[in-house]
Structures are given as C-alpha cells and as structure tokens.
Amino acid sequence: MSDPGGTTADPTPTHAGRRELAPDLYGLVLVLLSVGYILFAVSSALWAQVAVSVLLFVSLVLAVRTSVPSPRVRGAMRAILVVGVVATASSLLFLPERDAVAVVDATLAAVVGFTLVVVLARVLEHRTVTLRSIAAALSGYLLLGIMFTHVFGLVAWLEPPFFADGATADGRALQYFSFTTLTTLGYGDLTAATYAGRGLATFEALLAQVYLVTIVARLVASWHGPRVGGPPPVP
Questions:
Q1: How do residues 12-28 score in pLDDT, each as one tens digit?
Q2: What is the pTM of this model?
Q3: Is residue 11 a contact partner of residue 1, using CB atoms and an 8 Å limit?
Q4: DSSP letters along 22-88, please?
Q5: Cα 101 from Cα 7, distance rounded (Å)
Q6: 129, 133, 150, 220: least surrounded by Cβ within 10 Å?
Q7: How far apart are CA 188 and CA 135, in angstroms?
C-alpha cells in the first residue's frame, strides 16, 4: 500500500510489533508444566512418562513462541533442537540404556535452560505487573527446577552413586531432589554423595534465591506502573 507521498508501506511487522501481537500463552505453559510435574511425581508407568514428555515438549514450544524471541535466538533454538533430536535418536538406537539416558538428560538440560533464558528476558521487559508476567515468572521457576533435574542426571551418570544412601538416582528421585533443593525445604531422605552433586545443589539453591529476589522485586516495583519518562508498558 502506498501513502500520499508515493512511498510504499512495509506490511511486515517489526520484532516489537510481533511481540505486541503475540497471544498470551504463559498461563497455559504454567498449567502444562505443573501437570507434567505432578504426573511424573505420582506415576512411573510408561504412559505417564510418555505423557510427561509430550507435556514438556508442548510447554517449551509454547513458552518460546509466546516470548517471541529475535530471529537470531530462534535460529539458535532450532539448532539446539536439531542437534538434540539427532543425538537423542542416535543414542537410543546405538548406545546402552544408561548412556542413552545421559544423552537425553544433556539435551533436555540445554533446551530447558535456553527456554528459561528466553522466558526471563521477556519477563524483565514487562513494565507493569499482569497475569501474563506472573505466569511467566512462575513458569521460569518450574523450568529452573526441571533443568537441574537433568543436570543432576548427568552428574549421576558421570559419578555414581549420586545419593549418599545408595538410593537409585532415577528421574523421579532426581526431580524430588531438585525441587527440594530449589525450594530450600531441607533434606531428609536424599542427599548428594559426591562433591559435584553437593556443589550443584548449593548452586541451584543460590540461583533459586537470586531468582526469587530479582524477579519478585521486579514485579513488585512494576506494580506502580511504568517508570516516569519511559516507553509505554509492554503487555
């Protein structure tokens, strides 16, 4: 379409415009992550594991699409996914089960960690507190715990046994350990046996506290509206 001056308007939306038009899916992401967490915790059946995998995949896709990252970030995400899918498929076909699980843990830790960074970048752009920003922040908190679940899985593969009492370091036990660490509830039945496990557990607890302080503080500060003289609020 041409304006009166004869110039042609570009119908392609800018990156900022795409963000403004992006649907609000953070609430759905939060629900899917929560359902996946609960289902994984209460059932070890094969159907539950498949359902949890599907829920996690859909959650990550929706989180990235809702955050509307830049083309460069989207390209990096696609590259990580392609490499991860190829590595996972190859490991499941050619490696022993224990080694294949380690490859899956490495892939999921990378993908979830990347998604967490994308979501947090979007949260920190919000200048007013909305349900969208709160759901995004809570989703990021769950993603942090999920990421460390798979990081601990890698440590368990590298330096077994992972737990001090010799308990099996399966996915459910590692998720329980990760979120117990994340919420700093205190250990009772499971503790890390190696210095690597202990160090990472301490690091996760530290990140969780920093996350709560910085994100919650950002949301509380934004409750009073946009800063004086700043650009209009990002929805």
A1: 444 444 445 455 789 99
A2: 0.82
A3: yes
A4: S---HHHHHHHHHHHHHHHHH--SHHHHHHHHHHHHHHHHHHHHHH---HHHHHHHHHHHHHHHHHH
A5: 57
A6: 220
A7: 30
